[in-house]
Amino acid sequence: MPDEKPLFDPTVDTQSSNATTERPRHPGNGGETQQAPDHGAMTTAQGGVVSDNQNSLKAGARGPTLLEDFAFREKVFHFDHERIPERVVHARGYGAHGYFEATEDLSDLTMAAPLQEKGKRTPAFVRFSTVAGNKGSADVVRDVRGFAVKLYTDAGNWDIVGNNMPVFFIQDAMKFPDLVHAVKDEPDRGFPQAASAHDNFWDFISLMPESLHMIMWAMSDRAIPRSFRFMEGFGVHTYRLVNTEGKSTFVKFHWKPKLGLQSVVWDEAVKINGADPDFHRRDLWDAIQSGDFPEWELGLQIFDDEFADNFAFDILDPTKIIPEEELPIRVVGRLVLDRMVDNFFAETEQVAFCTQNVIPGIDFTNDPLLQGRNFSYLDTQIKRLGGPNFTHLPINAPRCPVLHFQQDGHMQTRGPKGRANYEPNSWTEGGPRADPKTGFRSFPEQVSGEKRKLRPESFADHYSQARLFYRSQTPVEQQHIADAITFELSKVETLAIRERVAAHLPNIDEELAARVVEGLGLAKQPKPHEPAVKPVDLPPSDALSILKNGPGAFTGRKLGLLLSDGVEAKLVEDVTAAFEGAGAVVEVIAAKVGGVTDAGGKTIEAKHQINGAPSVVFDAVAVIASDAGIADLVASHPAKGFAADAFAHAKFIGLGGAAGQLFDAAGVTGRDDGFFDLEKGAEPFVTACGKLRFWDRVA
Ligand code: HDD
C-alpha cells in the first residue's frame, strides 16, 4: 500500500516551501552560493541511471530495506571490495608522472632504448615511499625511502626499483623476509608503527654484521629527508649495459637531485609527523602543481671487468658502494616530474614495479639480492593486484605494442581476436613470433660451480665501508648518527641487545662507540665483536655527506613568515619579493585565521594560523611584528614555540619591527650570526638561507 504522507528527502531543506516537491540538482555539496554545475546523470556500474542516491528501497518509509534494490546492493558491494592488500613493504608511497630525457647518446655502451639518442624523451612514473610503515603512517619517520622509476620505453617497461641509499641491509634475498619481519611492528603487540626503534629490529641487526654499513646510512640524516625532491636515488645493485655487439659493461645507477640534498633534524621529524603527517606528499604535490617541477640527473658509474677485479670489494655485494671519487659518475640524462596522478588508487596504488622489468641493453648481474628480487616482485604484484593481468592496468601497460599468447585470467581486458592462441601455428593470421634480433637476450656469461648454499668470502668485510661512511661525514652529521643510534637503542628494552649493538661500533669508529656507550649509560664499552675481516681505513668520500652537497641556494625551499597586526606592508612585500625572486616559496602565518591587518588598515592574507604552522614545516623563518601587535604573539604559546624551535633547529631567522621580543619571550635572548635584521634589506638573509641552516649554533 503506498504511503499517504509525502516522503522526507534529507537533502532538501524542509523549512522552505515546496520542500518535498522539488529535488535540488546537486544535493549536499555545501556550495550554496555556487551555481549548480551541470552534472551528468549518475548510473550504476551497469550503466543504468540511478533515480535516488539518498534513500534505499524500503517497504514503507519506516520499513525494512528491500534486497531488490540492486543499485544499493551494487554500491555497497563495491565499497566492501575497495581495498587491495597494501604492499608488504613500501606500503606508504606517493607517485608522479614525468619523463626521462637522455642528455647523451650512449649507444656505444647499450642498446637501451631511452639512451640511444641525445634529447630523446621517455615517459616515466616514479613512486617514492617509506619502507616499514603501513599505508596510513607518517611521512617523516626514520626509514629508508623507496625511489622506484618506471620508464615506458619503446622496447617495453624498464623499472629501476631503487632506494635513497646505495646499499642494503642484507647480502642475500634469503634473508629479506627476516629483515622485514624484524623491522615491522612486532607480531604479538602490533607496534611500533613505522619505526625501527624496537627490540626485534636491533636484535636482528646485532646478529647480522653485514647490515652495519646500511645501518650507518639509516641512522644518518639520509633517513629523514626534507622532501623527496631533495634526496638521491640509487639502483643499488651492479647491473650490466649491453651494446649491439653484445659487449657488456657494468653499471650502477644514481639519481642526483638538481636542488641538492637536504634533510630535517630528528626533533623536527618528530614534530612534523604531528603537524603534517603528509609532509612529503604535500611537498611533491605543491611543487608539481605550482609548476616547480622536481628534477634529477641520471648518473652512471660505468666499469669493466678489470675494474671489478681490482676493486677492493665484490661488485656483486649490495652492501658495498663504489666511492664516486674512485669511479666518477657520468651524467647521461635527466628525470623530470611534471604531472600529478589523476587518481591515487588507480595510479600510485596500482603501479607495479618489478626489478625483472628490463629491456634489451640492460641486464642483471649475479648479485644474490637482485636475483631474489627478480623472483619476488612479480609474485607480489599478482597477489596484490589480484591476478596476472595487472599489466593491463593503464599505469602498468607498456606504451609499445604488446603481442603474445598469454590469455584469460582474472580481469582480462584484452580479447585477442582469431584462432591462434599458441605458437608455432600455421594460420595466416597466426600472431606474433619471437625475434632473436630485437628481442631480449641474456648476456652469455660463463657460469659454473658446485650447487651449494654459500656466501662468497669476498662478501665478508662488513665494517670497512661503514667506517668509510661515518668518517666521510661532517662533525654535525657524525653527532646525528651517534644520537640516532642512541635514541633507537633507548627504545630497546633488552640490555643484551643494546650491548650487542654497542659491541659492533668500535669496529666502525671508536669515538662513535664511545658516544653511544655514554648515551646509553653503559658502565663500559662491551667487548668488541670479532670481525671476520679486519676493517681497513679507506679515503673519506665527500659525496657521502649531505652537508657537503647542499644546494648553496634557497631555491625550491620555503620561508615561514609570521606576522602580527600593524606591520608595515612594504617590509612584508620586500621580504616576499626577495625570496620569491630566489625561487623560494613564502607562506604567511598569523595569529588569526585569515591574516593580519597592516599599518595601513589593509588585510595581508595568511595561509596558516599559528596553531597549525609550527616552524618545523619551514626551511627558514622570518617574524615581522609591530609595537602594537607583538603582544598577541608573545601571549601565544605556539608563536613562542615557533621561535624557540626555529632557533633550536639552527634555522636562519629574519626579524622585522618588534619581532625580537617574541624570541626573548621564548627564552632565545642571544642573537648569533644566524639572525638577520630585515630592515637592513632582505638580500643578506636570502643569501644566508642558501646554506639552509646555521650549523655553528648547534655545533
Ligand atoms: Fe623491494 C617493494 C626497493 C630488496 C621484495 N622494494 C619495493 C619498493 C622499492 C623497493 C622502492 C616499492 C616499489 C613501489 O613503489 O611500488 N627492495 C628495494 C631495494 C632493495 C630491495 C632498493 C635492495 C637493494 N625487495 C628487496 C628484496 C626483496 C624485495 C631482497 C625480496 C626478496 N620489494 C619487495 C616486494 C615489494 C618491494 C615484496 C613490496 C611491494 C612490491 O614489491 O611491489 O616484492
Task: Describe the protein.
One of its GO terms (cellular component) is cytosol. It comes from Amaricoccus macauensis. Residues 43-431 form the Catalase core domain. Helix 3 (199-206) packs across helix 12, helix 4 (212-218) packs parallel to helix 10 (464-471) and helix 11 (475-490) crosses helix 13 (510-520). This protein folds into three domains: 93-392, Beta Barrel (Catalase HpII,  Chain A, domain 1); 463-546, Catalase, four-helical domain (Hemocyanin, N-terminal domain), CATH 1.20.1370; 551-697, Rossmann fold (3-Layer(aba) Sandwich), CATH 3.40.50.880. The longest helix is centred in the middle third of the chain and has 18 residues, at 368-385. The protein is globular, with a radius of gyration of 29 Å. Strands 1, 2, 3, 4, 5, 6, 7, 8, 9 and 10 form a ten-stranded antiparallel beta sheet that branches. The protein has a six-stranded parallel beta sheet with strand order 15-12-11-16-17-18, sandwiched between helices. It has a two-stranded antiparallel ribbon with strand order 13-14. With 699 residues, it is α/β, with parallel strands linked by helices. 25% of the residues lie in helices and 16% in strands. Bound molecules: CIS-heme D hydroxychlorin gamma-spirolactone. The site of CIS-heme D hydroxychlorin gamma-spirolactone has 26 residues, from strand 2, strand 3, strand 4 and helix 9. The site of CIS-heme D hydroxychlorin gamma-spirolactone (HDD) has 26 residues, from strand 2, strand 3, strand 4 and helix 9.
